[in-house]
Amino acid sequence: MSSAASSGETIDGDARAWVSTLGRIAVAVITVIAITVAMAYLMLPVVALVTYQPVHDLISNIGSPVAVDAIKVSLRTNLIAFVLMIGFGTPFAYVLARRRFGGRSVVITLVELPLVMPPAVAGVALLVAFGPDGLLGGTLSTLGIPTPVFREGAVVMAILFVASPFYLRGAIAAFEALDQTLLDVAGTLGAGPLRRMLRVAVPLAGGGLGAAASLAFARGIGEFGATILFAGSFQGTTQTLPLAVYFEFSADNIDAAVAIGVLLLALSAAILLTAKLLPRLWTSSTSTSPSAGAPSISTPR
Prior knowledge:
about 300 residues, mainly alpha, MetI-like fold, 13 helices, about 0% strand, globular
């Protein structure tokens, strides 16, 4: 009897082992299929875009007057918006990250609101705020001050509105991650609030700030909806690269639209790679520096 029972238990154990093995194989197969399908779906449009036309045609279309003007407008407006975003956004994010005050959550929520706002709604909002008949634009028009609508300044404003929340959100997280002790020590050495931010907080949070700035810049380069509604699409003035893609596509010039799309794709990939590598490179450089990543604060004499 005991021998028969032992034999039955052995058979049951072998069966369970086989079932477990088959289950693992099934899970592995399903996982591979899911990954393959997902990657094929995500990569197929990218491959189709890059291989749509020969390289010499691609280069020729990127050098077209529409594309060249769009490149100039995009770089000029995004650089201006980037400087304003860093200049005003960094201290704003630092205050939101390091200070606790009533209504702070409401302020952060309002700052993040453009992240979830549809771009077309953002464009309409800017138009009814700063347009000739808008909330502030109407007053400017009454005073004889020209409104920024359909000018290059409107492109900068649209980029700032939709892209700056990406920087602010990342900058707040970077500043919140800092060790308060380092800031307190800098204070005991005579550094004021502004100097603590510039000499201690910003260098220590540099990796996170750089990544946030990269993502914000990428969002600004790809901005479309708010720009076309608030600034229009005028070649050489307000027509950025995404608007140029739409312009060429509407004109049934698919080759030129694809060429500009490839340029935007390459630029976006470079920015994404920078955003991923910058925090690691920054951490590595600060960890190997003589001060171990903590900037020195000289005591006042």
